[in-house]
Amino acid sequence: MNYFALLGLPVQFGIDLNQLRSNYIQLQKIQHPDKVGGNTRDSAHLNTAYTVLLDNNSRALHIFELHNLNTLATRIDLSKLNDAKANPKLYEQKMIDAFDANQIHEAYEYWCLCQYAKP
User: Which end of the chain has fewer beta carbons closer than 10 Å to its terminal beta carbon, N or C?
Assistant: First the structure.
C-alpha cells in the first residue's frame, strides 16, 4: 500500500508536515468508524500511513519499499562506513539530498550507512 497516495501526497522524502496532518484529518472525518459510513479498516490504514509518514526514518523505509529495495540488503563500503561513523550528520544530509534529487538507490545506500554507523 502506498501511504503517500492514501494521504494524497507526492512520493518524496521532504513532505509538508502541515499538509500531511491536514489531509489525514480530512480523511479521518470521512473514514473514522464513529462517523456514518466510516470504516474501521480504512481508518486503521490512515492511522498507519500517518504514523509512518510523520517519522523521517519510517518514511525513508516506506519509499525504499515502494521501490522494491530490501532494507540493509546492500553491500557496504567499509571506508564509507568509517566516514559515516565519523560524520553521521553529513551522511544524513547526503541521504536527504539524494532523495531530493530522486536518486532513490543512492539515498538507500546512505540510509544503510547511517544505520550501520549508529553506535
Answer: C
